[in-house]
Amino acid sequence: MPIELTGRCRVSGLREGAARDHGSTLRVWQHAGRESGAAAISLRVLELAPGRSPSLGGAACDEVLYVFEGAGALLFEGVSRPIGTDTGFYVPPGARYEIEASTPMTLVSSRCPDPGESAEAAATGAPPVVVRLDECISETTGDRWYSVLLDHHIGRSQVTQFVGGIPPGRAPDHYHEYEEVLCILQGRGRMWAGGRSTPIERGSCIYLPRRQMHCVENTGSTELRLLGVFYPSGSPAVRYYDGNGPTVDGVQRSE
Q1: pTM: predicted TM-score of the whole model, two decimal places
Q2: Which of 42, 67, 118, 252 is 20 to 30 Å apart from 34, CA to CA?
Q3: What is residue 3's predicted lDDT score, i.e. its pLDDT?
Q4: Rounded to an integer, what distance in angstroms lies between the CA atom of residue 141 and that of residue 213?
Q5: 92 touches 124 (CB < 8 A)
Q6: Measuring CA to CA, how many Å separate 47 from each of 50, 136, 204?
């Protein structure tokens, strides 16, 4: 069962709960979305067996995906793009695509705003955008780093997808002015929300409501790395502390 922390913050395992099967090649776990209390963001885990996936996408929203593990190709209107571990890609509203998995694949998907059970959207005509983590600029904020893969600078995306690294220890609790979902890529730690916490490790999936005080603590001896997605789009470096204005890279800014 998912662990409920303060303020509806929720932590679950990568493949926790019941999965929905889509043919013989695709299984989907839903960890966050409108049906579970999120205002606008969703978090799904897609597991693909080797071979061609069913048709994916088509929703009336932005979708960003990240390859947690595995390798294959993203297929869109006759064009094939290689994708593998630590690759992110953005799918515009209405766009439909397939994945040809050459090995078993696990992907983390967020749709914003989460369409729930709404009808499909008309395609915009724009193709998906593929970005590899090792192509992205790494920026530092305090003793942490992050790399933005996808945000509002990519097409019409209203969502930010980033990967960040956290050294051993615990930073001060803070909050954001957006909804956020996280997936732990490596390391071990604790997820704090208010005065409650629970252990996290590779594959832990986390939902954070807007303005929820929280902290990801690294309890190990090596870097903890996480995937983060938030809506609406912005900078991962902006955070708020109780009673203070926003800070960017550790420097307080006016509202």
Answers
A1: 0.93
A2: 67
A3: 95
A4: 19
A5: yes
A6: 10, 25, 15
